[in-house]
Design a protein that fits this description.
The complex is a heterotrimer of chains A (287), B (314) and C (456). Chain A has 14 helices and no strands. By secondary structure, chain A is mainly α. In chain C, strands 2-1-3-13-6 form a 5-stranded mixed beta sheet. Classes of the chains: A mainly alpha (287), B mainly alpha (314), C alpha/beta (456). Chains in contact: A-B, A-C, B-C. At the A-B interface, helix 1, helix 4, helix 5, helix 6 and helix 8 of A face helix 1, helix 3, helix 4, helix 5 and helix 7 of B.
C-alpha cells in the first residue's frame, strides 16, 4: 500500500491555460539532456565491450562494425562473478535483516522514553552519525574475535547504522501512545506488541532504512579489501576491482565483465524498483 | 552505564515481564557499542600512539606528536590542511549542487509527463550500480584521447585532461561524478515529499491568482521541509565521508586527496609506492581531526535545520 | 576480547529464544531472517581443510604474465605434493601492502610476495618512518631463512641488497628489473630515416623528425601517475649516476633540487612530459600504454623492462630496449638503473612453515627459476639462469652497468611536502599535474624537502 503512492495522482504546477505548452517542452528538453548523461556512459560501455583491444585503442568511440562476444566469454571464464553476486546479496540481506530486527527494539523504547536516559541514548546515536569509520580498531576487534576473513565477521560490520536508527525513532514518535495503552489493556505482551502492531505501522520507515542500508552494503568497497581475502568471499565490488587490477588494460574485457554484472542487477532492480523507490518515497520524508 | 526501565511508563506487565524491553534492546544496543562506539573511542586512544597496525610491532605512547605532525610539522601539514579544505569544498559543492539538481529534477518529474517513470528509474540507476562500475563508466566516458566528452569539448575548442590532469580539474570531475551518481536519491526523496503536499493548497492559491514561482515559494518549499531536512543532512554527512570515488577515479596523487582518503592511505600503506609505511596511529589522529570538523559542521547544519523546522512546522 | 564475544553470543541467543517464546505462537512470517544469519555465518566461518591435508596460502600482486606463471607453478607443486592445496591470492599492486599487513596480522598467509623492496632507513635519515618491509621484519613476522639451502641458489648481491636485514636473510629476490630505459620501435626509426639516439640532444631531434613524419614520439601510462616518473628515472640516472650518493647528498644538503646544475634536470623533465609524450596519455593506465605503443605509430615507450613479455606478445615490429639517453655525454647513457622486483618471504608464524619452505625451495630450483625468468623477462638473480629473450639480448652488452636506482634508497623525511620527491618531478608537470615552470617547481621541491630536513 505504501508503494502505490508514487504511481497515483500527479500534481500539476504549471499554468492550466491552453496556450502552447512551453513549460512541458522545456521540461522534456532538460530531461533529455540529463538522460544523455545517464545513457551515454552506459552506451559507451556496451560499445566498447564488443571491440577487440586494438580496435579500441585505435578508436574508442566509433560504433562497432561487428558484434563480437569473445570479450564476454573471456571475462566469464576469468572471474567467478556469479559467486560475487551471490555473496553481495547474502551480505546485504542478512546484515540488513539483523540490523532492522534489532534496531526496532532499540528505537521503540528510546522513542517512548521507556528506558532511563532515552534522550542521552539518542544523542549517542546522533553524535555517531559524524564519526569517521573507525577502520583500525574495528579491524583489531574483528581480528581478535577470530572473525577475520569470514562471512559472519564481515556481516557483523554492517549490523549498526545510526542514521537508520534515528529515522526509526522519529517515525515511532509519530505513532499515538493510546495504541500502547489499548494493546496493554488487551493483554498483549511487549514483544508481540512491537512485533505485530508497531512494526507494520512503521513499515514506511522500515522500508526506507532497509533500502538505504542495503544500498550502502552493496556499494561498500574498502571494507572487503581489509576484511575479506578469500576470493570465495568477495562481494561484487571487490571482485570487480581485483578484476580491474588484473586486467586493467583490457578495457573491452572489463566493459564486458561490468555489463554481465549489470544485467542481473538491472533485472533485479526492475523487479524491486517499485519497492526501493516506493520505500524511499513513503518513509524518508518523515525522518 | 546501566540501562533501566522507567517503570511507571511501562504498560506491559510487572515482575520478570518488565525485563523484556531491556533484554530486547540489549542486542541492538550492544552491537552498536561494540561495532561503532567502542572502536571510535579506541581510535582516539590510538591517535596518541605510534601504532603501525602490524601485529608484534611495539606500540609506544607518544602524546600529541601525531597531531603535532599532522597539523604543524614541515610542509606535510600544508598538504594535510589543503586536504582538509578540499574535503570542505567537496562537501559544500556536492551538497549544494546535488540538493538543487535533485530538487529541480523532482519538480520536473512531478508534472504530468509521459515517461516519467523511465526518467526516474534512469536517474536512480547509478545508485544501484555502485562505485566501481560508476568509476569505470566515467573513466571510459572521459577518455582524453577520443572519448565522447573530449570530442564534444573539441567542437567547442576546449581541451581537458579530465581525471588524469591538473588536480583542480580532476577534482571538479570527481565532484561531477559524485553528484551524477547520487542525485537520484535526493530526487526521489524530494518527489516523495511533493506527493504528500495537499493538492487543495495549490487550488486555493491559484484561485488567488498565484503563478508558478509564488506557488513554489509559498507552498511547495515550506511544505517540503521534512524532505529538505533529510536531504540536507544526508548530503552533508554523505559528502564529508565520501572518498571512494577518488580512489576509483584518480588514485593517490599530489593535490587531489580528501581527508577520508588520506586516513585510509596512511593507515593501510597506500600512500603511493608499494613500500609505503603503515601508520595507523597517525591515521587515527587524522580521523579524530576529521571527526571534530564533521561534528561541528553537522551540528550546525542540524541546528539550522531544526530552527527551520520550528519556523515552518511549529 | 573473548569476554565480549560471549556476551554478544548470549545476547543473540536470548533474542532468538525470545522470538520463539514471547507472546506464544507468533504469526509473523519474517522469522527466517534470524536463521539465515546463523546459516550464513556458520557455513563458511572456518575454511580449515581436513586434518591430513593442508592449504598453503600464497599472496602475489597482479602483473601478467608473472601471475599466470605462479598459478601454473602452484598447480604443478600440488601435483607433486599430494595432500597440499596451494591457494594463490592475487591482489592489485596498490593493495599488496594493505593485504600483507592484514593477513600477516591475522596469521592467514604462508608465502608472501615481497614486492617493491625498499632499503632500510639509513642513520642520516633521522626519524624517517621505515618502509613496510623493515617493520615486518622488526615485528618478527618474517621467517629467518638464512640457513636454508635454497638461499645459496641466488647471487650474493641480490641476497645482500634485497633480502638481508641486520645480517639475517628474510627473503630471496626473484629478479632485477630496469626502469631507467625505453622500448624503441626500430622499424619506425628506419622508416623516418633516423638512427637510435645516444644523447639527449639526439633524442630531441629524433623526436622532432618522428613527429614531423606524422608519428608520435613517446607514450606512457599517464592515468596511473607513476609510469610518468618511472619513464623519467633515466633522466635522473643519467645526470646522477651514483644514486645512493644522491640520496645522501639530498639529505645532507650537498645537492639541492634547485641547484644550478639540477635545474637542467627539471627542464628536461618538462621537455619529456610536455613535448616528447604524445597528448592524451592521461587516459592510459600502465599496461594500456604498452598496448597503445604496440599499435606501431609511436617511436619510444619509456617504462620498466617488466613490460617486455607484453611487447613480445603484442608488438608486430622490430624493437629493442635501451637506457634513456638523458645525458649529453653518450658514455653516461649506458648505465642501467633499476630495482629488485619481487621476492619470496615466509610468514614466521605460519603453521605450514615446512611446506612453505618446500614451496620456495621448489621455486628456487634452477630449472623452475629459469622458466620463471623466461616467462617474466626479469634479469635473473640466480647466476646459472640466463635471459635469452629480445630484452635479454638487448641488455646483455651493458648488463655490467646495472645499478640500483633512486627509488630503492629514498625515504621521504617525515614532514616533507608533497613535491619533495624530485625523482617524481616529471609527473608534477602539466598535463599530469599543475606545474608549468621548471624553475618554480624545482624551488618548491627544495622548499618541501627542506621543511622536513630542518626538523630532523
Amino acid at each position: 500500500m505504501t508503494i502505490q503512492t508514487m504511481e497515483q495522482e500527479t500534481r500539476v504546477i504549471e499554468d492550466p491555460g491552453k496556450r502552447f505548452p512551453w513549460g512541458k517542452v522545456l521540461s522534456y528538453a532538460v530531461l533529455l539532456i540529463f538522460s544523455v548523461l545517464y545513457i551515454g556512459p552506459l552506451f559507451m560501455l556496451v560499445n566498447a565491450s564488443f571491440k577487440t583491444l586494438s580496435e579500441f585503442f585505435k578508436d574508442p568511440i566509433s560504433p562497432v562494425s561487428s558484434i563480437n562476444f569473445e570479450n564476454y566469454t573471456n571475462a566469464w571464464e576469468r572471474a567467478n562473478f556469479s559467486r560475487y553476486m551471490l555473496n553481495s546479496a547474502v551480505y546485504a540481506t542478512v546484515a540488513t535483516a539483523v540490523f532492522v530486527f534489532t534496531s526496532v527494539f532499540v528505537a521503540f523504547p528510546i522513542a517512548r522514553g521507556l528506558v532511563k536516559g532515552a534522550g542521552a541514548l539518542l544523542t549517542l546515536y546522533v553524535v555517531a552519525l559524524f564519526l569517521p569509520p573507525a577502520l583500525i580498531p574495528q579491524f583489531q576487534l574483528i581480528l581478535n574475535l577470530g572473525l577475520y576473513n569470514t562471512r559472519f565477521g564481515y556481516i557483523l560490520l554492517f549490523v549498526v547504522n545510526p542514521i537508520g536508527m534515528i529515522i526509526l525513532v522519529n517515525y515511532i514518535k509519530s505513532i499515538p501512545r493510546e495504541l500502547d495503552e489499548s494493546a496493554a489493556v488487551d493483554g498483549c505482551g511487549y514483544f508481540r506488541f512491537v512485533w505485530s502492531v508497531v512494526l507494520p505501522l512503521i513499515r514506511p520507515a522500515v522500508a526506507t532504512v532497509t533500502v538505504l542500508h542495503a544500498i550502502g552494503i552493496w556499494n561498500e568497497l574498502i571494507l572487503p579489501t581489509i576484511y575479506l581475502t578469500s576470493a570465495d568471499l568477495y562481494p561484487i565490488t571487490r571482485g570487480l576491482i581485483v578484476f580491474e587490477g588484473q586486467y586493467g588494460s583490457d578495457w573491452p574485457g572489463l566493459a564486458a565483465a561490468v555489463l554481465m554484472l549489470m544485467i542481473p542487477m538491472l533485472i533485479l532492480f526492475m523487479f524491486l524498483q517499485r519497492f526501493i523507490i516506493g520505500g524511499l518515497t513513503s518513509g524518508a520524508v518523515k525522518g | 552505564m546501566a540501562i533501566e526501565l522507567v517503570k511507571k511508563d511501562y504498560l506491559f506487565g510487572r515482575g520478570w515481564k518488565s525485563w523484556t524491553p531491556i533484554l530486547l534492546l540489549l542486542p541492538g544496543f550492544g552491537l552498536y557499542l561494540i561495532i561503532a562506539v567502542g572502536p571510535s573511542l579506541a581510535t582516539a586512544i590510538y591517535s596518541f600512539t605510534d601504532a603501525t597496525g602490524i601485529k608484534g610491532s611495539p606500540i609506544n605512547w607518544i602524546g600529541f606528536e601525531n597531531y603535532d605532525e599532522f597539523l604543524f610539522r614541515g610542509l606535510a601539514s600544508r598538504d594535510n590542511i589543503a586536504a582538509l579544505q578540499r574535503t570542505l569544498v567537496f562537501s559544500v559543492l556536492v551538497t549544494g549542487i546535488q540538493f538543487s539538481l535533485g530538487l529541480g529534477l523532482a519538480l520536473l518529474l512531478n508534472q504530468k509527463l509521459r515517461g516519467k517513470i523511465f526518467f526516474r528509474t534512469l536517474f536512480f540507476l547509478p545508485v544501484i550500480l555502485g562505485v566501481v562500475i560508476q568509476g569505470l563508466m566515467w573513466k571510459l566516458f572521459l577518455l582524453p584521447n577520443g572519448g565522447p566528452v573530449a570530442e564534444v569539448f573539441e567542437m567547442f575548442g576546449i581541451s581537458s585532461e579530465f581525471l588524469g590532469g591538473k588536480p583542480t580539474e580532476a577534482f571538479l570531475w570527481v565532484i561531477a561524478v559524485q553528484i551524477w551518481a547520487n542525485v537520484g536519491i535526493t530526487m526521489v526523496i524530494f518527489l516523495a515529499g511533493m506527493q504528500t503536499i495537499d493538492e487543495n493548497l495549490y487550488e486555493a492559491a491559484r484561485i488567488d491568482g498565484a503563478g508558478g514561482w509564488s506557488l513554489f515559494k509559498s507552498i511547495t518549499w515550506p511544505q517540503l521541509t521534512p524532505a529538505i531536512n533529510t536531504n540536507f543532512l544526508l548530503n552533508i554527512i554523505g559528502s564529508l565521508q565520501a572518498w571512494q570515488l577518488f580512489l576509483v577515479l584518480i588514485g593517490y596523487k599530489p593535490g587531489t586527496q580528501v581527508l577520508g582518503y588520506e586516513i585510509f592511505a596512511q593507515g593501510f600503506g597506500q600512500t603511493g609506492g608499494v613500500s609505503a609505511a603503515f601508520r595507523q596511529g597517525f591515521a587515527a589522529a587524522a580521523s579524530v581531526v576529521l571527526f571534530f570538523i564533521v561534528l561541528i559542521l553537522g551540528l550546525s547544519a542540524n541546528w539550522f535545520v531544526s530552527r527551520r523546522e520550528r519556523k515552518y512546522l511549529g | 576480547m573473548k569476554k565480549i564475544f560471549n556476551i554478544r553470543l548470549i545476547a543473540v541467543l536470548l533474542v532468538m529464544a525470545l522470538v520463539a517464546a514471547a507472546c506464544g505462537g507468533d504469526d509473523s512470517g519474517d522469522s527466517p531472517t534470524t536463521t539465515a544469519d546463523g546459516g550464513g555465518g556458520g557455513a563458511t566461518t572456518t575454511t580449515a581443510a581436513p586434518v591430513d591435508d593442508l592449504t598453503l596460502t600464497v599472496l602475489i600482486h597482479s602483473q601478467e604474465p608473472m601471475t599466470t606463471f605462479v598459478q601454473d607453478f602452484s598447480d604443478d607443486f600440488e601435483a607433486q605434493n599430494p595432500g597440499v592445496t596451494v591457494d594463490v591470492s592475487v591482489v592489485g599492486a596498490a593493495d599488496l601492502a594493505t593485504v600483507t599487513q592484514t593477513r600477516l596480522s591475522a596469521n592467514d598467509i604462508d608465502v608472501i610476495d615481497m614486492f617493491g623492496f625498499a632499503n632500510p632507513v639509513e642513520a642520516y635519515m633521522g626519524g624517517a618512518t621505515p618502509p613496510a618491509w623493515q617493520t615486518l621484519v622488526e615485528a618478527g613476522l618474517l621467517l629467518d631463512i638464512t640457513d636454508e639451502a635454497f638461499v645459496a641458489n641466488y647471487d650474493t648481491p641480490s641476497i645482500e641488497q634485497a633480502g638481508t636485514f641486520d645480517g639475517r636473510v628474510y627473503s630471496v629476490n626473484l629478479g632485477r628489473v630496469v626502469y631507467g630505459g625505453m622500448f624503441v620501435n626500430n622499424d619506425l626509426l628506419a622508416d623516418v630515416g633516423v638512427s637510435l639516439p645516444t644523447t639527449w640532444g639526439e633524442l630531441v631531434s629524433v623526436c622532432e623528425a618522428v613527429v614531423a613524419a606524422g608519428n608520435e614520439c613517446m607514450t606512457v601510462g599517464g592515468a596511473d601517475g607513476w609510469p610518468v616518473f618511472v619513464g623519467a628515472y633515466g633522466l635522473l640516472g643519467a645526470l646522477y649516476p651514483d644514486q645512493a650518493q644522491l640520496v645522501e647528498d639530498l639529505y645532507t644538503g650537498a645537492v639541492k633540487w634547485d641547484d644550478e646544475e639540477t635545474l637542467e634536470l627539471w627542464r628536461r623533465y618538462k621537455t619529456y612530459a610536455t613535448e616528447m609524450l604524445e597528448s592524451g596519455t592521461t587516459g592510459y593506465a600502465h599496461d594500456a600504454a604498452t598496448f597503445r605503443y604496440a599499435a606501431g605509430d609511436v617511436a619510444f615507450l619509456p617504462t620498466g623492462s617488466w613490460q617486455s613479455p607484453n611487447m613480445d606478445a603484442e608488438a608486430t615490429f622490430d624493437w629493442t630496449y635501451v637506457p634513456f639517453p638523458g645525458s649529453d655525454d653518450a658514455a653516461d647513457n649506458t648505465n642501467l638503473f633499476g630495482k629488485y622486483d619481487q621476492g619470496w618471504s615466509i610468514a614466521a608464524n605460519s603453521p605450514n612453515v615446512e611446506t612453505a619452505k618446500k614451496f620456495v625451495a621448489a621455486f628456487s630450483d634452477p630449472a623452475n627459476y629459469q622458466a620463471f625468468v623466461d616467462a617474466t623477462g626479469f634479469i635473473p638473480t640466480q647466476p646459472t639462469a640466463t635471459l635469452e629473450s629480445t630484452l635479454g639480448l638487448a641488455l646483455k652488452p651493458i648488463l655490467e652497468n646495472y645499478a640500483v636506482g633512486f627509488e630503492q634508497y629514498w625515504v621521504d623525511p617525515a614532514g616533507s611536502g608533497q613535491w619533495a620527491n624530485g625523482s617524481q618531478g616529471a609527473s608534477f608537470f602539466a598535463p599530469f599535474n599543475q606545474w608549468e615552470d621548471p624553475v618554480e617547481l624545482a624551488t618548491q621541491a627544495q622548499i618541501d624537502l627542506q621543511a622536513a630536513l630542518d626538523e630532523l
